[in-house]
Amino acid sequence: MKNSNKLGINTICVHIGEVEDKQFKGAVSPIYPSTSYAFDGVDIKRYPRYFNTPNQEFLRKKIAILEHTEDALIFSSGMAAISAALFAFLKKGDHIIIQQVIYGGTFNFIANEFDKFGIEYSFTESDKIEDFNPLIRPNTKVIYIETPSNPLLGITDIQAIAALSKQHQIITMIDNTFASPINQNPFDFGIDIILHSATKYMGGHSDISAGAIAATKEHIDLIWKTAINYGGNLSDQTVWLLERSLKTMNLRVKEQTKNAQIMAEYLEKNPNIDAVYYPGLLSHPQYEIAKKQMNGFGAMLSFELKNTIDAMNFQRQLRLIKPSMSLAGLESTTVSPVQTTHALLSEVERLERGIKNGLIRFSVGIEETRDLIADIEQAIEKAILC
Ligand SMILES: *Cc1c(COP(=O)(O)O)cnc(C)c1O
């Protein structure tokens, strides 16, 4: 492990990156909302869009240590982080290879913006390492992956991607949102740039929008030069909320991950479920890779209801578990990819990607699993078509 740290994970979550309250000795970080700081001619000028107000500067340290990197930057959304990282490393005439299955917003960003700037891009056929190699061109500058991926929890071999990229001096980026820094630290496997939608597990309470990038100091300095031009900094009030959320991240994510394993095993045995996709199941095709590169298998899973059950009706019948567009909060939520994230694709395109009508993506929360199981049982009973 690079940047090995002697402190335990909960200690890091609670204490690293605190802003000391020297004036009143309060227990938590004060918020510094100033947008204007004294100019003394020598020191770096503090300014919100420079990512260096006291709250931003300190929280960057916590995120860096959590991802085992030297430095980090905090943004106003996951997409602000992802777009700044990509535009920092890509210019006209460059080429990027992107894993086929990635977050919809990232796909839209690439498909809608890159042509305008003359940046070439190729999507792989699958998440298998063999599919990346043939796409490498002399002008390939970045390889971009996401693992586990949405909604079928595909696993990409992080170490193999990093090794392939190093051979060709290509920068690697990973969207580490689904795993969170608790369950996966891609920097240890040689990935250069770690991206997060902090709206998800880092925030964890479904109440803040934020993003983060973790990398070496050299790479963060380079991204910073682009990021200050796009202006995607997070307000200091929300930086403070993110700090508060991160204090419990390990407790939340560990509990959610434990629950997800229990729910995945339960669903796999349920006769009304055709398939369960969860990297912690032995039946997952890339279970061995997941085991090698993840500290825990995460709290996202998906499952296919039998065609005797209407997916929308099933979700309407749930009492505790909320149908919800987003994910990773401490409350359990479901979403039907066919009705939402993949609604714009034709049925043929969806089936090509393995997304059937009865597919439900399940973000497992911290509730007791016996309550979640009871909720699913009663919803299935009501939604079954006789
Ligand atoms: C939500 C999400 C994003 C985008 O994050 P925003 O905070 O909504 O901008 C990126 N990647 C993944 C995997 C996500 O789930």
How does this structure look, described?
By secondary structure, the protein is an alpha/beta fold. It is built from 13 helices and twelve strands. The chain folds into two domains: 243 residues, Aspartate Aminotransferase, domain 2 (3-Layer(aba) Sandwich), CATH 3.40.640; 136 residues, Aspartate Aminotransferase, domain 1 (Alpha-Beta Complex). 36% of the residues lie in helices and 15% in strands. The strands form two sheets. It has a seven-stranded mixed β-sheet with strand order 1-7-6-5-4-2-3, with helices on both faces. A five-stranded mixed β-sheet has the order 8-9-12-11-10, with helices on one face. Strand 2, helix 4 and strand 3 form a beta-alpha-beta unit. Helix 11 packs across helix 13. The structure holds pyridoxal-5'-phosphate (PLP). The site of pyridoxal-5'-phosphate (PLP) has 15 residues, from helix 3 and helix 4.
